[in-house]
Amino acid sequence: MKKIIIFILFMSVFSSKAQKVDLDRFYFNVSYQILPKEPVPFEKRTFSSRVRLGGALQSYVDPISLNDKINIFGWKKVEENGTVDIELNLEDFVESGASPQTRVDEKKDKDGRVTSRTEYYSVSSTYAARGYAKIKGPHTPAETDAKVQAEKTIQAAAPTNRFLKNAVVKKDTTAVTDGYNISFNGTLEYKSKEYTDPSAPMKEFRLNRGAIRDQKLREFADNSLNNFNANINYTYGFKPKNDNEILWILDAKSDEGNAQIEAIQAVKALFATMKADEPIDDLKSNMQPLIEYFDSLKTKYPEDNKPSRKLRYSAYYNLAVIYIMLDQPEKAIAESEKLIANDYDKSDGKGLIEKANKLIASFKASKLNTTHNPALK
């Protein structure tokens, strides 16, 4: 009788660990910065800017308003002599011409015979725009992949290749140049709506010609400013970003399921305190009990069956995501490698490693180790 009871207890424990495991996505909010490609010390993050307009734009665009919209996230704007000095010049905007357009719409039957034919008429006008931005400030030119690979090939072969032994490979000592330029030259197009009356589109265009030109001119100014701000912030800015991340949490009415619900509630509450431009030292400390909990699941479910591997997968995945969000990509890679070795949904592990490596690359380029940096005020 005693042996039967022990057997029943053993089977009960086994079945509880081998039961079906369902995981659900749970979302939480994070805030961080997209780091710049150009490293500049904190105390030197100042910029100055000016906007110059050609005669065609002066009546339609306010240069002071445009200048106020120039912004580098995390930097302080000064009147002059900033570490980065900007001149945005929108020189000219002219109508190149307007021309009638015709489109033929044919309807065919199942044998390919044309059953009806309708001509639609419209007007197309083009506008030539000219402008540029001059950025004076530290700027590291990007080396081409081909050049970098050629240098590595020579360096690798030199010790054993008699013809390359004395080859001189020049390092790129141009590291930093004093700025760069951006061109906004191009064309904009306006196309009227279509009419079946061939004279209607040109009449409509002539009636609204001035308003159409003004609309395209402002579009040119707005697009130039938006493209410029995107470019300058890619190079120097600490652009804030809000995202949704997911954790995989056990969907079960059990002690483990209840613990995981509490865990995701805590994750949501703690990450809600995260701000892009404030340090996350307190968040890292507050997250430690949750990290320890997810870490404990790896040894709590050691069996080589699908339910146990699924629970371990959630632990590895959740830890990797948390470590990435806490600016600890090396730890995220370690968890992702274990996720792959766990042999349940390996593709997620590879994706997390790629994400962590991108974070490491951005740290290297910006010479920083966090995506939460204060703004210079």
Question: Can you tell me about this structure?
Answer:
- This protein has three domains: 19-35 and 239-366, Alpha Horseshoe (Serine Threonine Protein Phosphatase 5, Tetratricopeptide repeat); 42-98 and 125-140 and 176-236; 141-174, no CATH class.
- The protein has helices at residues 2-18, 55-58, 63-68, 145-157, 200-207, 209-236, 255-271, 281-300, 306-325, 329-342, 346-366, and strands at residues 23-34, 46-53, 76-77, 84-108, 114-139, 177-183, 186-191, 239-250.
- Strands 2, 3, 4, 5, 6 and 7 form a six-stranded mixed sheet that branches. It has a two-stranded antiparallel ribbon with strand order 1-8.
- Helix 9 runs antiparallel to helix 10, helix 9 (306-325) runs parallel beside helix 11 and helix 10 (329-342) packs antiparallel against helix 11 (346-366).
- It is an alpha/beta fold.
- A hairpin with a 5-residue loop joins strand 4 and strand 5.
- The radius of gyration is 31 Å and the shape is extended.
- It is built from eleven helices and eight strands.
- The relative contact order is 0.16.
- The N and C termini lie far apart (78 Å).
Nutshell version of this structure?
With 377 residues, this protein is α/β, with parallel strands linked by helices. 45% of the residues lie in helices and 26% in strands.
Broad structural category: alpha/beta
Oligomer: single chain
Based on the structure given, which CATH architecture of the largest domain is correct? Answer: Alpha Horseshoe
What's the helix count?
11
Number of strands: 8
Number of structurally distinct domains: 3
Mean pLDDT: 88
Task: State the major sheet.
Answer: 6 strands, mixed
